Amino acid sequence: MKIYTKTGDKGTTSLFGGKRVAKHNIRIDSYGTVDELNANLGLVRDQDLDIESKAGLIQIQEKLFTVGAILASDPGKASNASKVPKLKEDDVEFLEKEIDRMNEDLPEMTHFVLPGGHTAVSHCHVARTVCRRAERICAALFNLEPFDEKVLQYLNRLSDYLFVLARCIAKQKKAEEVKWIPETSK
Predict the structure, then answer these.
(1) Which of 19, 116, 118, 162 could form a disulfide with 175 if both were Cys (CB 3.0 to 4.6 A apart)?
(2) Can you give the pTM of this predicted structure?
């Protein structure tokens, strides 16, 4: 199989189902940003993390391929529906359970914390911000062409998961969490 097809040389690409759209189409931007998020999660997973975190990240990366498939599908082709994988309520619940599990061992948050303190923590925060961007783009697409709402739920929960994972990694690495304390006017 050849990697290059030359079909996108004029700024268009195909959705799952064959419909051609501009590469700057919001649908392409949505699943492209999810792909960027997935690549960033790979970078997080490549850090020195515990086995449980790595396993969870692999599961999440696989679900992001499902999200990408949903977003890459032509909404006008009903025949695609049976071929596209689906997110399940369990997928969102997995993130919630992991957030709760990790949060049990963390100190209470009293302030916002500045991203950083350790490379693994910083990578996790970068992934979190890419996740938030993906969520914003997908929400805009949803307003134009609705798709499975679980995608929006999943991305929303995933950004929370990544925030808690960053805090968990900071604790494991004994990295200082720098609190953001806003200046008050005099």
Answers:
(1) 118
(2) 0.92
Q: Classify each residue of 129-141 as buried b or exposed e, where b means 16 or more C-beta atoms within 10 Å of its C-beta.
A: ebbbbbbebbeeb
Among 129, 135, 121, which Cα is nearest to 44's?
121
Residue 9, phi then psi, degrees to nearest 5: -65, -15
With H, G, I as helix, E, B as strand and everything else as coil, classify residue 174.
Answer: coil
Helix (H, G, I), strand (E, B) or coil at 115: coil
**Which CA distances in Å does 125 have to 33, 36, 41, 100, 143?**
16, 14, 10, 19, 27
A 10 A CB-CB count for 158 gives 27
Alpha helix stretches (DSSP H) within the chain: 26-45, 51-71, 89-103, 119-144, 150-172
Residue 53's contacts (CB-CB under 8 Å, 6 or more residues apart) are 165, 168, 169
CB-based contacts of 42: which residues, under 8 Å, 6+ apart? 61
Instruction: Answer for the pair 152, 138: CB distance below 8 angstroms, yes or no.
Output: yes
* pLDDT at residue number 135: 98
State the amino acid at position 181 in one-letter form.
I
* Mean pLDDT of all residues in 50-63: 97
Q: Which amino acid is at 62?
A: E
* Of the candidates 51, 72, 57, the residue with the CA atom closest to the CA atom of residue 128: 57
Rounded Cα gap, residues 177 and 181, in angstroms: 12
